[in-house]
Design goal:
CATH class: Alpha Beta
Strand content: 15-25%
Strand order of the largest sheet: 1-2-3
Number of strands: 3
CATH superfamily: Trypsin Inhibitor V, subunit A
Helix content: 10-25%
Distance between the termini: 55 Å
Largest sheet: 3 strands, mixed
Radius of gyration: 24 Å
CATH architecture: 2-Layer Sandwich
Length: 89
């Protein structure tokens, strides 16, 4: 019985599985890097901006989903209605 347990333990130790990691999305898949000049500008400057995916305007205190979408362009506004941050996700 003891020999069987030792053999089973060795067998299980040899059956190590590797988890494949998903490839990392491109760092700037939404084009936010080219729009950093809009930080500090009025929110109206972001209107009409296009991106490969959706464009999301986020106002202070507004509830938003926390899912990561690489090609979604986000404009985060401050309390004064100016663009505070431009990023992908």
């Amino acid at each position: 019985m003891r020999t069987t347990l030792i053999v089973a333990a060795l067998f299980l130790a040899a059956c190590e599985t590797q988890v494949a990691e998903a490839p990392a999305p491109p760092e700037d898949a939404c084009g936010a890097m080219a729009l950093q000049h809009l930080v500090g500008a009025p929110a109206s400057e972001a209107e009409g901006v296009s991106a490969p995916g959706d464009v999301r305007m986020i106002n202070p205190g507004e509830a938003v989903t926390m899912d990561f979408v690489a090609d979604r362009l986000n404009f985060e506004m401050d309390a004064d209605g100016q663009i505070d941050r431009v990023y992908c996700g």
